Amino acid sequence: KPTLLQLLALPKVLPDAQQRLEKRYHCLKLWEADDPNQLMRDHGEEVEVLLTSAFHAARAALIDQLPNLKAICSLGVGYDSIDIGHAHAHGIQVSNTPDVLNDCVADLTWGLILSTLRGMGHAERFVREGKWESQLATLPLGRRVTGKRLGIVGLGRVGLAVAQRASGFEMDLRYHNRRPRNDVAWTYESDLLALADWCDILVVATVGGPETRHLINQRVLESLGPEGVLINVARGSVVDEKALIEALAHGTIAAAGLDVFESEPHVPEALKALDNVVLMPHIASATLETRQAMVNLVVENAESYARSGKVLTPVPQAAAIKKPG
Ligand code: 8YV
Fold first, then answer.
1. Can 174 be counted among the known catalytic residues?
2. N or C: which end of the chain has fewer CB within 10 A?
3. What is the pLDDT of residues 129-166, one digit of tens each?
4. 70-79 burial by CB neighbour count: b if 16+ within 10 A, else e?
5. In angstroms, what is the span from residue 223 Cα to ligand 1's centroid?
6. Could you tell which of 12, 77, 102, 301 is best to mutate to test the pocket of ligand 1, judged by most ligand atoms within 8 Å of the CB?
7. From the CA of 191, how far away is ligand 1's center (Å)?
8. Among 290, 152, 295, which residue's Cα sits nearest to residue 233?
9. Global pTM?
10. Tens digit of pLDDT for each residue in 164-211?
11. Which domains does the chain have, with CATH numbers?
């Protein structure tokens, strides 16, 4: 059997997932090793497949410790934690788990839109803290959701699922992307600042990584303006978090709903102290059904490589990945 190095234990949502891997591979479980460095030194040369996730970095230094690596199978759609250019330059195939999480990520995006505009987090704390009986008049009014203008940064698979859910809310919608899509009727906005200026709610659903780092900066937040709301379900790196905290604290924008953070799981105290932000611990794909589908797909990729020498859902070639906009 070929050797597969696992950087993580598969989430226990599919009882037979680990067995399926072990049917095809000799699995090395890095997290169980007393001395992970020793395990890498002793067995690095044997490893043909690496199983990782969007939360476990597979950078060049790690890849270089595995001279016979042929495939990286990653759990999650985002692959900014993997040094794709380095992997592809060494002929290593990389797969992710696209599509199966689109609906749940889009659902949570709408949950964030609703809870942010309607102040649901604040209102829920208000009830739990026993303030309803005595202080109802102090509960701030929310903002209407229906009929708002929605701007989407990154109309990829997730962005599209977010957009499709907007029609029930009678929203006008525009998007900013690397290039216009020819399969949608929504207005394309080539200028991110113009999109931020136009919309009431700006949803960030773009890829992470160096190409999009701090794409949402102070200028974009200023364009979004004092009535504007920012929602981020992409990667923390896409938003300049310091600029966002300033903007929320000084009313440069109205509010934000965030599922991702620059140094997660660390969330800055300054952000936690603000009432006009809804904070989620990166749970957009965290439903039983979606996690089952994700685990199944990462295992299917490893199985497919064992069977045919090809992963099932390869990420685009590094050369094709360019800065959006
Ligand atoms: C997951 C994600 O929480 O898919 C992604 O890129 O960020 C999330 O869906 C994560 O990948 C789980 O490993």
1. no
2. N
3. 999 999 877 899 999 999 999 999 999 999 999 999 99
4. bbbbbbbbbb
5. 30
6. 77
7. 28
8. 152
9. 0.95
10. 999 999 999 999 999 999 999 999 999 999 999 999 999 999 999 999
11. 3-98+289-317 (3.40.50.720), 102-279 (3.40.50.720)
